[in-house]
Amino acid sequence: DAMVIQNPRYQVTQFGKPVTLSCSQTLNHNVMYWYQQKSSQAPKLLFHYYDKDFNNEADTPDNFQSRRPNTSFCFLDIRSPGLGDAAMYLCATSRAGQGGETQYFGPGTRLLVL
Amino acid sequence: KQEVTQIPAALSVPEGENLVLNCSFTDSAIYNLQWFRQDPGKGLTSLLLIQSSQREQTSGRLNASLDKSSGRSTLYIAASQPGDSATYLCASDQTGANNLFFGTGTRLTVIP
How far apart are the first and last CA of chain B? Predict the structure, then answer.
């Protein structure tokens, strides 16, 4: 089945220790998104890739970076995690279009910062 | 900046009841309005998408409406079932680039 896969499902890291979250898709979608969802809050878009074009949201901290080496994979790098970065990180994909394309979400990676 | 609000934050209903979930947004210049479902500890599943030119969309027991002028959308669930228990989030697309602004959701519990 075509799907969006996120690994690991749970990640524990130490304060200030770099961490990488991964997302892969078998849907062959052009667009991939990373969202941050803190407890009881709305998902917040961090950035997205349209093919290889990287689009950063204005208020995404510099501490967050992303890489997309190919169509199938996208990585979220947190260079120096702080306690406030503990959250669920959601990856999503969609076809390219002029708005109105359904986004398909992975199950998320829950990050804990000690 | 767009603000999306969903009230109530939580709702409990007995099985079989029809119910309405509310979503309001401050900026009516939207391309579309989307409804998602999120089960505990999991990702989001797209339910319905209403383009700005549309008034409503239906899928099975779900019906979503959109009133841009008043900045409101509703999700109607008919004949609720325990399997409908989840958090329902609405999101607006402001730019047509599918960059979504989400509400915080309504957590629905359907009691058998």
Answer: 40
Distance, in Å, from the CA atom of A53 to the CA atom of A60, rounded to the nearest integer, reads 17
Average of per-residue pLDDT across A69-81: 96
Task: Please indicate if any CB of chain A lies within 8 Å of the CB of B45.
Answer: yes
Average pLDDT over residues B10-26: 96
Whether the per-residue pLDDT at A67 is higher than 90: the answer is yes
Q: Determine the pLDDT at residue B90.
A: 97
User: CA angle, corner B23, sides to B57 and B32, nearest 5?
Assistant: 50
What are the beta bridge partners of residue A53? A50
Token pair 């058998």 is at which residue?
A: B112
Question: Does the distance separating the beta carbons of B104 and A41 come in below 8 Å?
Answer: yes
Cα separation, B2 vs B12, whole angstroms: 28
Output b/e per residue, A46-64; b: 16+ Cβ within 10 A. Answer: bbbbeeeeeeeeeebeeeb
